Amino acid sequence: MVNKFCQIVFAVFLLLGNVVSGQQIINDSIRAQLEIGIKGFQERFHAPSVVLAIVHKDNIIFSWASGYTDLENKTPATIDSKYQIQSVSKLFTAIATMQLLEKGVIGLDDDIRKYVPEFTGINRGGRPSGTTFLELSTHTSGLPRNSQADIDFAKNVDLWMLTRNDSISLRAATKEDFLKSLRTVSREYPEYEFLPPDTRQYSNMGYALLGLALERAAKKDFQQLVVEAICRPLKLSNTGYGTISSKENKIAQGYYYQSDAEKFVKTPNFYANAIAPAGGMYSTARDLARFISAQFSNTIGMLSANSVRRMQTFGIGWQRSYPFVKHEGAMVGFRTEVVLHPKLEVGWVILTNTTDFDFSRFNEYVSRLVLPIFADKPVTDPGQFVGTYRLEGGGESIQIYLKDGKLYSTYLEQILQPEPLSFSGNNALKSKGLNGHDVNYNFLSDGNSKIIILNLNQLMWVKE
């Protein structure tokens, strides 16, 4: 089901008339509206700080940082401030998966038990069952959201939310305890359960298991693997594993807004431990902007363009929300989101150090202002449709021509008579037919308002 965010974007595209070239820098009016919107959302959701970077292809076209990463020390947020990115870490784990796939180290259909024999993968019938790299990376394994080894972690989250006890820390299970839990864990959902489009049985445990399998398959510490194979090639110098701030590596302090007392409360330290592949990284808006740009490049070094597209298309790491792919990270004290529009090569990252923030409304706001700048310009010049269209792989052709300022087609002209074509939508023409049956022409452009292909009668015709 298309969500409200996507419906609004579709409406923007349908209403577009005279769009601006994608190379134009965001103008002062849009910039001012973005700044007003960020301030409004920051105030509405009580965020001590908000950092936003918007990217088009290889360029940051807008950035904004407001507030403080540390309220007590009045440390101002900047585009280079480090934040916990939580589940956005899964994107790096997914990329590492595809890298090892490209190298032939693993296969997406490989049984994870080949590398993690501690995992039995018991199905709902009580029998051991295999689970693949593809199932884990796309959240289709049916595994629970979290391992039973994380019971203390889950309890402490609730305890802190209930009591605000300063002595509580949030510690996910150690690798040792996580491995022990794999002997008894079973699927929460059946294999290959039929679900609505883009619905996933989201599993932090699944990504922790995935990271463990990748570590063993590569015969290298998982965190070292990601840093060496992804962060360094992309020059993400302020990205890595860690959730606790130190003198050498300052990470934003997380906060919870206590509405009844109208004050900010510091949130507990979070230790990712075994679930680091699912949510143990930190990064900056500048680094994540570079990461976004890498998804649009054909020579990004870390992955082939084909693998990048496969990740986006099949939801490997990414959450699909057409025409976007995205991923959100959330923990007590932090909210992060990365959003991509692959076709327009536009994306943005939002970093906050607050517990609650409505990204859907924020995304709608950014989309309304930014996407029309880069949307494909509809072809309005009738002359662009004129030409010879030859059936792909066949000998037939048709002509579309201008006469007295109107477009005509030679397709079935002996039956339809010389009736002019009419516009029926963006890059679409229609010939009034007979007996209630019209003939529809749908054209594809190359992104520069040049018609290159005609879809007619479910066949492809190429413009000569």
Summarize the structure.
By secondary structure, the chain is of the alpha+beta class. The chain has helices spanning 4-15, 28-44, 89-102, 133-137, 151-163, 175-181, 204-218, 222-231, 276-279, 285-294, 305-314, 359-374, 413-416; strands at residues 49-56, 59-70, 75-76, 83-84, 170-171, 240-241, 255-258, 263-266, 270-271, 281-283, 319-321, 324-331, 334-341, 346-352, 387-391, 397-403, 406-409, 421-425, 428-434, 437-445, 451-456, 459-463.
Task: Give an overview in words.
The protein has 464 residues and is an alpha+beta fold. It has two domains: 4-374, Beta-lactamase; 382-463, Lipocalin (Beta Barrel). Helix content is 30%, strand content 25%. It has 13 helices and 22 strands. Strands 17-16-15-22-21-20-19-18 form an eight-stranded antiparallel sheet, with no helix packed on it. Residues 5-23 have low confidence and may be disordered.
Radius of gyration: 26 Å
Summarize the biggest pleated sheet: 8 strands, antiparallel
Please state the structural category. Answer: alpha+beta
Query: According to CATH, what is the topology of the largest domain?
Result: Beta-lactamase
Strand content: 15-25%
Number of helical segments with 4 or more residues: 13
The CATH superfamily of the largest domain appears as DD-peptidase/beta-lactamase superfamily
Strand order of the largest sheet: 17-16-15-22-21-20-19-18
Principal-axis shape equals globular
| Average residue pLDDT | 90
- What CATH architecture of the largest domain do you see? 3-Layer(aba) Sandwich
In angstroms, what separates the terminal alpha carbons?
39 Å
Bin the helical content: 25-40%
Give the domain tally: 2
Low-confidence segments, ≥5 residues, pLDDT <50? 5-23
Question: What is the class of the largest domain in the CATH system?
Answer: Alpha Beta
> How many extended strands?
22
GO molecular function: hydrolase activity
Protein name: Class A beta-lactamase-related serine hydrolase
Keywords: Hydrolase
Organism: Chitinophaga silvatica
